[in-house]
């Protein structure tokens, strides 16, 4: 009887280690993948947010309404610093504008092909360098219009809750 229990325990441990390794690989891939997005993609996300969650309605995905909305979004220091480097270096005027947005079905599939349903209809943040001009935060426009200057390289919960 003890050998059978030990065998099931070893199988369970192997499965748990596999799941942990899979989550680590997925998280590592996410952290090392730059998520610069185009203005067009940003506008699509912003529009979806404004039509749904921004109006007090639940987000929607192909399965229906999103019942558990985003709890938090984590951005690493490197991502934040790259954005801050685009803004005025004066600590009182240069900064980051955080836009509330929502993943559309097409963009969830584009950026998270491994599990787009976990993202579609959920809120996220898109970041953009900004400067205060006469007390109003104004987006910094980069000199190369082909270079995406919106960032969405965060890790959000769900699905990456610990």
Kindly describe this structure.
The protein has 2 domains: 1-32; 35-157, no CATH class. 36% of the residues lie in helices and 23% in strands. The chain has 4 helices and 9 strands, in the order H-E-H-E-E-E-H-E-H-E-E-E-E. The chain has helices at 2-32, 39-51, 77-84, 105-111, and strands at 36-37, 60-61, 64-65, 72-74, 94-102, 123-133, 136-139, 150-151, 155-157. It is elongated, with a radius of gyration of 20 Å. It starts with a helix and ends in a 5-residue tail after the last strand.
Sequence stretches where pLDDT stays below 50 over 5 or more residues: 5-33
Report the β-strand fraction as a percent range.
15-25%
Total strands: the figure is 9
Global mean pLDDT: 81
Helix-strand pattern: HEHEEEHEHEEEE
- What is the overall number of helices? 4
Q: Termini separation (Å)? A: 35 Å
Summarize the biggest pleated sheet: 3 strands, antiparallel
Shape: elongated
> Number of folding domains?
2
Lateral strand order in the biggest sheet = 5-6-7
Secondary-structure-based class equals: alpha+beta
How much helicity do the residues have?
25-40%
Radius of gyration: 20 Å
Short characterization:
The chain has 162 residues and is of the alpha+beta class. It has 2 domains: 1-32; 35-157, no CATH class. 36% of the residues lie in helices and 23% in strands.
């Amino acid at each position: 009887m003890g050998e059978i229990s030990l065998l099931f325990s070893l199988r369970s441990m192997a499965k748990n280690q596999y799941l942990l390794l899979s989550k680590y690989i997925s998280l590592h891939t996410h952290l090392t993948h730059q998520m610069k997005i185009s203005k067009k993609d940003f506008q699509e996300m912003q529009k979806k947010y404004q039509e749904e969650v921004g109006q007090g309605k639940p987000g929607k995905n192909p399965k229906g309404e999103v019942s558990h909305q985003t709890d938090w979004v984590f951005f690493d220091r490197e991502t934040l610093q790259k954005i801050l480097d685009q803004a005025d270096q004066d600590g009182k005027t240069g900064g980051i504008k955080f836009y509330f947005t929502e993943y559309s079905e097409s963009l969830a599939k584009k950026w998270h092909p491994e599990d787009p349903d976990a993202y579609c209809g959920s809120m996220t943040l898109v970041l953009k360098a900004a400067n205060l001009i006469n007390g109003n935060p104004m987006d910094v426009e980069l000199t190369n219009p082909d270079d995406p200057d919106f960032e969405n390289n965060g890790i959000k919960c769900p699905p990456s809750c610990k």
